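STRUCTURE:
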């Protein structure tokens, strides 16, 4: 059970971001296609970055009892994809919030 702690924390965090998004209609509840594209491109780009770092020996998977042990590729844990989705979603929400705040101030 402890092996799922990190993944569970990531999923709870993503759920929290989704609730904030829904409440303020910032991204997915405003334009789900554009938001999915934005987050998807970010995740793919960061996974490519991770892949390059792993291939060059710059990155390595650390062992932790809190991770599932499931790998997307050698040395690339499945939790990394969820972490990257969280990172990209958070960045998108922050951008949209700052953009909306700037628009409101301009009026």
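SEQUENCE:
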């Amino acid at each position: 059970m402890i092996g799922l702690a990190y993944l569970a924390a990531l999923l709870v965090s993503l759920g929290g971001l989704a609730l904030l998004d829904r409440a303020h209609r910032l991204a997915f509840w405003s334009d789900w296609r554009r938001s999915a594209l934005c987050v998807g491109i970010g995740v793919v780009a960061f996974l490519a970055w991770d892949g390059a770092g792993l291939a060059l020996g710059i990155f390595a998977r650390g062992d932790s009892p809190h991770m599932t042990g499931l790998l997307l590729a050698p040395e690339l844990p499945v939790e990394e994809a969820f972490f990257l989705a969280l990172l990209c979603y958070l960045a998108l929400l922050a951008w949209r919030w700052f953009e909306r705040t700037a628009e409101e101030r301009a009026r």
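REMARK: The longest helix spans residues 78-106.
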